[in-house]
Amino acid sequence: MTVHEQASTADPAGAHAPALAVRHLPRSPRAAVVFLHGGRADSRARSRPWHLAALRMKPVVRAVAHAIPDDDVLLAEVRYRVRGWNGGDADSLRDARRALDELRRIAPDVPVVLVGHSMGGRAALRAAGAPQVRGVLALAPWCPDGEPVAQLRDKEVVVLHGDRDRVTDPRLSKAFVHRARAVGCRASFVGMAGGDHAMLRHTGEWHRVAASTALEMLPPATGASAHGTRCRPDRPSPRR
Length: 240
Description:
By secondary structure, the protein is an alpha/beta fold. The protein is 30% helix and 18% strand. The protein is built from seven helices and seven strands; from the N terminus they run ββααβαβαββαβαα. The chain has a seven-stranded mixed sheet with strand order 1-3-2-4-5-6-7, sandwiched between helices. The longest helix has 16 residues, at 91-106. It is globular. It starts with 19 loop residues before the first strand and ends in a 13-residue tail after the last helix. Mean pLDDT is 89; it is low at 2-13 and 225-233.
């Protein structure tokens, strides 16, 4: 699968700008993967596609696109209005929910996998209560104490977190996974040995595991049993 730029040219900070930037739109999508990049705890500055947080997700998008053997999975990114989460405003969560609403109009009833990094991981986990969301892959997510988990009941969640992360705490991610399991979420934690927050150390491993995990969360393609199972890269076993 190749990734094609199909985003709107509307001002991303505009009140009516689309929240969903579609990168690959099949004629009849069977599923969708939506990516959410990171940001800042507090910032009202406009979010721009050339900011580092957005650029860090580009290789992940490409890795996932390359791993999908079929051409019937829609790929898109959430476009934030501003760079920060901003406390109770939860701006990136609001944008994620707007993007899911827009996706529903483009491709009704398709199951969705959310892939989020850092602040985007937090937004993805919060937005996972939407009916069309099948699972969440959270990369070095920001999981403060007290984050809600009830919305994750009956969802699949995989958290990847590096043990050298100095921005978000892998211990809090582990605690989040345990709390999510308690409410009926199929949650697992995968430690990335030597991994940092920006996913720059052992980059290839981050991309390989992220692609494999996202692929496993997607529903099987129609006729997959007749043509054999898909070849999926191995990923490390989840840690309890």
